Amino acid sequence: MIGTWMHDKLKKNIGLKRYNHSIGVMNTSIELAKHYNCSVEKAALAGFLHDCGKLQGEKNLLKVASNFDIILDNVMKNNKELIHGVLGEVLAKKEYNVMDEEVLNAIRFHTTGREDMSLLEKIVYIADVIEPGRSFKGVEEIRELAYRDINKSILYSMDNTIKFIVDRGSLMHLDTIKARNQLIIL
Ligand SMILES: [Fe+2]
Ligand SMILES: [Fe+2]
Fold first, then answer.
1. Half-sphere exposure of 132 (CA within 13 A, CB side)
2. Residue 168 binned pLDDT confidence (cut-offs 50, 70, 90)
3. Mind listing the domains of the chain with CATH numbers?
4. Distance (Å) from CA 67 to ligand 1 centroid
5. How far apart are CA 50 and CA 37, in angstroms?
6. Ligand 2 centroid – CA 54 distance (Å)
């Protein structure tokens, strides 16, 4: 399903390091999909392409986004880390011929999360955090938690992300706050 041309294109667009990370996220997404009874094909594709918007060597993501007629909200304009999700969704559609809305949403929301995330969105979100190439303090605990309680694992890593954003003084996306609030009262 994921053709050689897609591998070649992704490698060229995002660079070898991020390509390898994407393979890790794809494999972890497949494992989680099997574990939680989600579509393995969709998980593989969404995991593989989740970072396709991280264009290597591209300094002006704002311009690229506007070239694709993407309307960015104010938070995204001021926290450029967040642009690659929405840009990735559009590139997946236009350059990788992905038409599946569930896959496209999993790509779009993999950085911010959102309220009412689908199982596929949750899988890609957490696979991005725990893929085999990740080696931060506490990753083993989240890996284990991801298979035991995916909601808790997302809440835990969202809290880490939020602390990081606060420490850095960056803007927080409202979708992340909404996702976190919902996960807390689940
Ligand atoms: Fe990403
Ligand atoms: Fe990623």
1. 8
2. very high
3. 4-185 (1.10.3210.10)
4. 20
5. 20
6. 9
Ligand having the closest approach to the CA of 81: 1
Least distant ligand from the CA of 86: 1
Token digits of residue 167: 């420490």
155 Cα to the center of ligand 1, angstroms: 17
Cα 100 to Cα 79, 88, 138, 168: the distances in Å are 27, 14, 34, 35
CA distance 95 to 52: 10
The pTM of the full predicted model, rounded to 2 decimals, is 0.97
Name the closest ligand to CA 54: 1
**Structural tokens at position 126:** 């957490």
Q: What is the distance in A from the centroid of ligand 2 to the CA of 24?
A: 9
pLDDT of residue 58: 84
Q: How many CB atoms lie within 10 A of CB 21?
A: 20
What pLDDT, on the 0 to 100 scale, is given for residue 1?
Answer: 78
Q: How deeply is 183 buried, as exposed, middle or buried, from its count of CB atoms within 10 A (0-12, 13-18, 19+)?
A: buried
pLDDT at 54 over 90: yes
pLDDT value of position 63: 93
Judged by its nearest atom, the ligand closest to the C-alpha of residue 47 is 2
